[in-house]
Amino acid sequence: MIVEIGHYALILSLSVAIVQSILPLLGARRGDARLMETGTIAATGGFVLITIAFSALVTAHVTSDFSVLNVYQNSQSAKPLLYKITGVWGNHEGSMLLWVLILAFFGSLVALFGRDLPAALKANVLAVQAWILTAFLLFILLTSNPFTRLEPAPMDGQGLNPILQDIGLAIHPPLLYLGYVGFSIAFSFAVAALIDGRIDAAWARWVRPWTLIAWIFLTLGISMGSYWAYYELGWGGWWFWDPVENASFMPWLAGTALLHSALVMEKRAALKIWTILLAILTFSLSLLGTFLVRSGVLTSVHAFATDPTRGVFILCILCLFIGGALSLFAMRASSLEGGGLFAPISREGALVFNNLFLTTAAATVLVGTLYPLLLEVTIGKKISVGAPFFDLTFGPLMVPLLFAVPFGPLLGWKRGDLLGAGQRLYFAAGVALAALLVTLALTSGARILAAFGFALAFWLIAGSLTDLVLRAAFLKVGWRSGLSRLIGLPRSAFGTAFAHFGLGVTVLGIITVSSFQTENITTMAPGQTVDAGGYAITFEKIVPRAGPNYEEQGALFSVRQGGVEMTTLDTAKRFYPARQTSTTEAGIWTHWFSQLYLSLGDPSADKRSVVVRIWWKPLVTLIWIGGIFMAIGGAFSLADRRLRVGAPSRRRQAVPAAVRA
Amino acid sequence: MNRKTKRLYSIGGILLVIATAAGLTLTALSSSIAYFQSPTDLVKNHPGPSQRIRLGGLVEDGTVKREGGAHVTFRITDTVDSVPVTYTGILPDLFRAGQGVIAEGTLGPDSVFVADTVLAKHDEKYMPKEVVDDLKARGLWEDGKGLTKTPAGDKTVSASPVMQGAGS
């Protein structure tokens, strides 16, 4: 019964979405306030309906109702409760429902918090949101219905893919979707502005908080996903340039560019057309990501679907929205008037530089991701594009961008002083140079690339803090009044500093791990000891254990340094009978920011010894900690007085834009 | 410098960046991609040791040998031809005889394939897409049935659950 209510609510939400697609748009054309208001009601109502549908599916999973095909295929009665809940989106149908739920959630946020938006703009935005919602609801109902019943109901389900039975599944997809789908708001605003044919600096001020929210979640989602893959897959890698990873990384790159260009538009009313295009492109890349992951054109842990009709359906949605938005852009862009002029060396110029490199980098990732598909479709040749490709293309593009980051915030709007900015970065340059020389000295000149990498990372870290230190004027007014000045700085200054600092921290982690990690593959019998990263690792014993829905062979290793026992590493090979699948549970010991990572291979023929892979990963956690810093930076920016969530009140609109200190 | 020249320089700079990126991409596409080949292709074409290859097929039964440490040798077959492979490292959890795998590496001068990566996804139903497509194209595979021809001297492969699930 509950399942049918959910199914019904989902169908009902489709009709509501169709209403929301048309009426507010008509209202905006005719200037009819009541018609426009239907958008607000429909968006909120649609969200409630989809929440009911989603809750129904969660209930079916939690109560293990195997008469529902989706539950039968992806659950099992012995599965722990947490995985029964997270298993809802651990499959194609359920994850699409989550996608749509989040889309409706963002739509209802605009409806509720967008009271101060001009009525016509709000109506148009909600209508565009409803177009997307309609398309994806149709997709779910026609090709991926999670509420399909099974007759007769089987006794037990097939279980969830063991690799997904992890706390990571509870966090990673929702975060990622909040990011991915959050960009739909920026897209809807862009399309609404094009429909309206009007756009001004206030538009950017409305769009930026939504973009920031999406960006924060996407940053966290990607970091989280990277860490999950790192500890769960047992390969010790944190980024594989897998097409599915790229699918989330491309919108991130474009979204980062959008954040920066929206800043220019907001402050200086320049780059309007470009910002609109970027808003369209960012969400287009999100849609492309959804297509790549959900259509099953790629085989990966993420691709649950192999049904070709689904792929074709999403491809149609993709073409419709991207093609439609870009055609609209081509028709209307020329009618939008350009904005303020600026010198190449200026804050605007620096942000254009940022945009140029970020979008070009996104383009190379796009080529690397789509080229194999293209080649297979056209000439039938199968190739794989992996890390070597991206190291050669993405890597070099990042170097000038990262080098330029500390300059940006120090340049003035309109016309900047590069020399002056350079002088203020003396300290950061000194730190970078010290890092370079120390690394060269310690490695006796053998690791030149690593040394330059460290210099770049420290340049970023010190450089991003320079702006704060200078604006607080610690050196001039002393630390006490400097501190009070620091607290008084606008939050956006902290936002910039934190985000750029986080970037530096991530770069530091990446450089350290890729240059100085050690890897050891050996066969070990109980009692044997191996050295890694200055630690003596002794294989203690094998212990057979049983979990709720698996059996495992645990292997215990003790870690000693100078004879002192530091910790015991517990690692295992798990076997899940329901799926006849085994997984590797890596043993990880975090010491400060570094990690000792141990994973088990196969036992030898006599079953006494086992193949062990041991990594020493110096500063590896910085990669993800940097991501968290970036997200905190985003949150600071969001908390800035200028950008309250939703929209600034109309009263404040009247105040000139030059509020920033 | 007047405004016009400044603008010209800016546009020139932008084009330079894009051109560099395009150049890098083209270089990378010609040098650092790996081509998928079946054992039959590999035996026929015999590419040089500089060409990276993704060799896909089934692990031939009874050929997996672990020789001290983490060194493993096995043969990858597509039921027509088979190629000897050596690999040092930890094999994926689902690596076993009859399982579809992809080995990435190069073909040595002694016709032994030296793999630096071996992929077999973490799913009992998983059969690398390239391998299935390749076998299908040559009539060695049918959807829902799996292998239509058993590798020589082995009766268990097509009957195993791995094969049954893979096509469905």
TrEMBL record, chain A:
Residues 89-295 form the Cytochrome c assembly protein domain. The keyword DNA-binding does not apply. The chain crosses the membrane at residues 6-28, 40-62, 96-113, 125-142, 175-195, 207-229, 249-266, 273-292, 312-331, 352-374, 394-413, 425-442, 448-474, 494-516, 619-639. One of its GO terms (molecular function) is lyase activity. It is a multi-pass membrane protein. It is found in: Cell inner membrane. One of its GO terms (biological process) is cytochrome complex assembly. Keywords: Cell inner membrane, Cell membrane, Cytochrome c-type biogenesis, Lyase, Membrane, Transmembrane, Transmembrane helix. Belongs to the CcmF/CycK/Ccl1/NrfE/CcsA family. PANTHER family: CYTOCHROME C ASSEMBLY PROTEIN-RELATED, CYTOCHROME C-TYPE BIOGENESIS PROTEIN CCMF. This is Heme lyase CcmF/NrfE family subunit. It comes from Jiella flava.
UniProtKB/TrEMBL annotation, chain B:
Pfam families: CcmE (PF03100). Residues 1-7 are cytoplasmic. Residues 29-168 are extracellular. One of its GO terms (molecular function) is metal ion binding. One of its GO terms (cellular component) is plasma membrane. It is a single-pass type II membrane protein. It is found in: Cell membrane; Membrane. GO terms for biological process: cytochrome complex assembly; protein-heme linkage. Keywords: Cell membrane, Cytochrome c-type biogenesis, Heme, Iron, Membrane, Metal-binding, Signal-anchor, Transmembrane, Transmembrane helix. SUPFAM superfamilies: Heme chaperone CcmE (SSF82093). Belongs to the CcmE/CycJ family. NCBIfam families: PRK13254.1-1, PRK13254.1-5. Heme chaperone required for the biogenesis of c-type cytochromes. Transiently binds heme delivered by CcmC and transfers the heme to apo-cytochromes in a process facilitated by CcmF and CcmH. This is Cytochrome c-type biogenesis protein CcmE. The gene is ccmE.
